[in-house]
Design goal:
Helices cover 0% and strands 47% of the residues. The chain has strands spanning 4-7, 10-13, 18-24, 33-39, 46-51, 58-60, 68-73, 78-83, 92-99, 115-116, 120-125.
Length: 126
């Protein structure tokens, strides 16, 4: 079992930056691919970024490519999402998630992730 706790959300002006953190419990964190997802008001949860277990492979949604960076520190059981050049359309609750399938290619599919955090609100004002 893995427990995930996100932090770092808040209110920021358009063009600003935030760094989200996701702290994981459990000794198996370092073997899991990790993902960030978001859900805006009235929208379905959507993929943002994912990273493989050792941090050597990442995938981004087209909408955030070049602006967001996902990274992880396995020694600290933490995954990060650096968000730059934020736009009002980035406003959402951001969730981190863990895929417990060992050794697989990181996936963009919500249904493939087994563990989820409670989410952190990001609001970008225009």
């Amino acid at each position: 079992q893995v427990q995930l706790v996100e932090s770092g959300g808040g209110l920021v002006q358009s063009g600003g930056s935030l760094r989200l953190s996701c702290a994981a419990s459990g000794r198996t964190f370092s073997s899991y691919a990790m993902g960030w997802f978001r859900q805006g008001p009235g929208k379905e949860r959507e993929f943002v970024a994912t990273i493989n277990w050792r941090g050597s492979s990442t995938v981004y949604a087209d909408s955030v490519k070049g602006r967001f960076t996902i990274s992880r520190d396995n020694a600290k059981n933490t995954v990060y999402l650096q968000m730059n050049s934020l736009k009002p359309e980035d406003t959402a609750v951001y969730y981190c998630a863990a895929d417990r399938r060992v050794g697989v290619v990181p996936t963009t599919q919500v249904s493939e992730y087994d563990y989820w955090g409670q989410g952190t609100q990001v609001t970008v004002s225009s």
